[in-house]
C-alpha cells in the first residue's frame, strides 16, 4: 500500500496547526508559491513569513495584499547564507515552491535548513505529478530530481 504523503494535505496541516507563533520561509513566489503565500497570510493567525527569491527574479515586489511577508533575495545554492537567514528569522518550516529548473537547489535548501538548528520541517516542491520511482529512470528525467529530493 502506498502511504506517500502528498503536498495538498500537508499544506492543509500546516495551515491548521498553531501557526501564529511559527516562522515560515517560502522559497519562490511564482505560480505555485503565490497561492501558498496567500493561504498563509489569509489565515486569521497567520505565521511570520519570509519569501526567498532569486536575486535575478522577475518578482521584485510582492502584491500589496501579500506585503506582510518580507522578500529576501538569495542564491538558493549558498548554504551559509541560507543557514544564516533561517537562524536570523528563527525559521521553523521551509516550504519550497520551486519550478523544475530549481529542483536541484532544494538539496542546498535542505542542508541549510538542517544546519540552522531552527528548522523542524522541510517541505520539498512536490506540488504536482507523482514522482515516486522516477529516480530509477535516470537523471535526465525531471521527475527523478524531485524524487531524489523527496525520497533522499
Account of the protein in words:
The longest helix is centred in the C-terminal third of the chain and has 12 residues, at 105-116. The protein starts with 6 loop residues before the first helix and ends with a helix. With 152 residues, the chain is of the alpha/beta class. Strand 1 (23-27), helix 2 (33-42) and strand 2 (48-53) form a beta-alpha-beta unit. The protein is built from five helices and five strands, in the order H-E-H-E-E-H-E-H-E-H. 34% of the residues lie in helices and 14% in strands. Strands 3-2-1-4-5 form a five-stranded parallel β-sheet, sandwiched between helices.
Tally of helical runs: 5
Arithmetic mean of pLDDT: 80
**What is the β-strand count?**
5
Contiguous runs where pLDDT drops below 50 for at least 5 residues: 1-8
Rounded to an integer, what's the Rg over CA atoms? 15 Å
Instruction: Please provide the ordered H/E string of secondary-structure elements.
Output: HEHEEHEHEH
The secondary structure category is: alpha/beta
Span between N and C termini?
A: 20 Å
The helix content, as a percent range, equals 25-40%
Amino acid at each position: 500500500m502506498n502511504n506517500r504523503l502528498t503536498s495538498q494535505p500537508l499544506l492543509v496541516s500546516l495551515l491548521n496547526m498553531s501557526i501564529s507563533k511559527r516562522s515560515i520561509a517560502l522559497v519562490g513566489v511564482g505560480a505555485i508559491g503565490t497561492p501558498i503565500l496567500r493561504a498563509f497570510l489569509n489565515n486569521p493567525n497567520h505565521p511570520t513569513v519570509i519569501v526567498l527569491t532569486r536575486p535575478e527574479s522577475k518578482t521584485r515586489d510582492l502584491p500589496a495584499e501579500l506585503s506582510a511577508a518580507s522578500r529576501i533575495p538569495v542564491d538558493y545554492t549558498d548554504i551559509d547564507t541560507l543557514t544564516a537567514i533561517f537562524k536570523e528569522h528563527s525559521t521553523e518550516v521551509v516550504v519550497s515552491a520551486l519550478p523544475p529548473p530549481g529542483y536541484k537547489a532544494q538539496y542546498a535548501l535542505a542542508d541549510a535548513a538542517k544546519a540552522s538548528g531552527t528548522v523542524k520541517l522541510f517541505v520539498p516542491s512536490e506540488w504536482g505529478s507523482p514522482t515516486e520511482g522516477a529516480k530509477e529512470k535516470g537523471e535526465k528525467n525531471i521527475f527523478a530530481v524531485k524524487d531524489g529530493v523527496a525520497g533522499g
